[in-house]
Amino acid sequence: SLGKARVEVFRPASRSDANLLSDLDLVVELRRAVERKEIFLQYQPIYRADTRKIESFEVLARWRHPQRGIIPPDLFIPSAERNHVINLLGWSILGDALQELAKWRSMKLNTTFAINFSPLQFLERDFSFKLNRLLAKFGLLPNDVVVEITEGNLALQSDQFLEKVDGLKRLGFLVALDDFGVGNSTIANLRDLPFDILKIDKSYVQNSDSGSKAAAILPALVEIAKASKLATVAEGVETQAQLERVQALGVDFIQGYFFARPMDPDEALFLAKEDCAL
Ligand code: C2E
Ligand code: CA
Ligand code: CA
Ligand code: CA
């Protein structure tokens, strides 16, 4: 229907087509996008495996580009990281998420928000100071948020990185290691890692019923997490079979399209209220 304002999803035909947004243009455009509030947030529930109640919502950024339609984060976060716009973007996303969370708290909803941070932003010198200041501005506490960090490059082998994780935990934040299993540096050192939660990458969950290599790795990842006394989240659960498999392995939390896709804040709020009343 031509009359309706319809949003088109920007889907490049290939990876290299993503460079249609040349990095140079992207820096300019992303700064403008933040000013013009084109970045918006969706929320995906994370459920407790045992009670099936909502524990948290992961905050996921999207870009409503005036010409290109909705751009998914995989197509702008990496460029933002390469071009040092990620900090500006990250703080803006956090502010928006905390504003939303403050509204939920005023309605007596107590789920946490899990927020993704680039290792680059995380490594900013005054990261935890700024984080605390923003929380205070909205009357929130450290344990209202889960800080999700991906094991980027060699970050996990750096003392600076691990000390920061430790520092955040001491301040009362929950810290999750995202995309667990993808990197190769972690597993050997895992016992020393100061995280609360491991999020098992969806590639291991989704191939878990195929008899593939991933199917063999998944139980090992869960075992490692348990041995380290860390809570586990299985992400990307799409089917009943995958759900049964991760539950049989004793995963603590479950996230995926099988239960819910990322959704707009009002829908998420509605779901949270409903879940709370159960
Ligand atoms: P992630 O942190 O691993 O987030 C989970 C991704 O898996 C999300 O993709 C989510 O929509 C998707 N997902 C959840 N359940 C399922 C499922 O059952 N099946 C499938 N196929 N996918 C599922 P999304 O929203 O496209 O985000 C992609 C990545 O972009 C995120 O991966 C994260 O690394 C990054 N990202 C998103 N928002 C932010 C942000 O605010 N800041 C930063 N630094 N990175 C972000
Ligand atoms: Ca994440
Ligand atoms: Ca992940
Ligand atoms: Ca990811």
TrEMBL record:
Domain (EAL): residue spans on this chain: 23-276
First and last residue of the signal peptide: none
Top-level taxon of the source organism: Bacteria
Protein name per UniProt: Cyclic di-GMP phosphodiesterase Gmr
Organism: Acidithrix ferrooxidans
Residues of the whole record sequence present: 762 to 1039 of 1042
